[in-house]
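*** Residues and shapes ***
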Amino acid sequence: MGRTYARAFTLIELLVVVAIIALLISILLPTLSAARAQARSAKCLANLHSLGQGLTLYTNEYRDILVPGRLPVVDNCNWNVNLQGRRKFRPNFLAMTSLGTGVPAFDDPMECRNTTDRFGEAGDRQNYADGTLVCPTAAEWTDERNSSYGYNYQFLGNSRLRDNNNPTSFKYWPVQATRIRYPARTVAVADCMGSAASFAEGDRQEYENNARDVFRYGNEGINLDPPRVDPVIGEMSGFDDPIQTRTAADPRHSGQRASVLFVDGHGDGLTLQTLGYRYAPNGSIGFDGDNTLWTGAGTDVPWTLDFRP
């Protein structure tokens, strides 16, 4: 009898199979990547929905007063507020609204600026302890100052001081929620790119925890500046800095959209153009945008000390 041999794949056949597998992977990877991005966007909007509940509960608790952006520095231990049974130095709006939702903003809240928590973080630069306070697309942006979510502080709760010698001379706070004429058309919270908005995209650098570099993503992200600001008598995140800088919403999600929470509690993904931002010729975010979705009154004006809704 003649011998029979099992038929093996030829080298060419193996190469064809490998090529087909590589082709399938190249087709599937963008789909999987898009699905992951869509899931992060959905999670971000869910986070904002939770924050919206916290904003409402804060307003109800404090008799119609909207939460301030972040309490000012008076001295090394003031302002501080009771959070989770402990005092916290200069809590921002995320920390204060977390009281209503039961989310612990910090594992080890510090009462004073010149103290450090058990993670080695300063009392005014602590890291969030819960993921709902951080956009999942910018999951490493956990610094309470360089936050991934920013607040429309100029029109809802500018608690910076007019007079540094008067600890209650807030620029524009308290603000009553009932004075917001169009809550469904007034931005409350949104993804924020920080002061990097003041620079062309190619000049912006990556986020760094605890950094104060104005060109980095996330720097002073807790303060979300509206599209239109007055650089002479107005307000912005870096108004008094040697390099005058502003923040802006961050279109970090698919479709170049930022996740946005409105005062009435609903959320949406919107482009910078829809929000009213305008690009300067060098690609930075200009000062001359449209504030219709920001003032609470449906008007396009910048915030100044004489602003009235």
In short: The chain has four helices and eight strands. The radius of gyration is 24 Å. The longest strand covers residues 187-191.
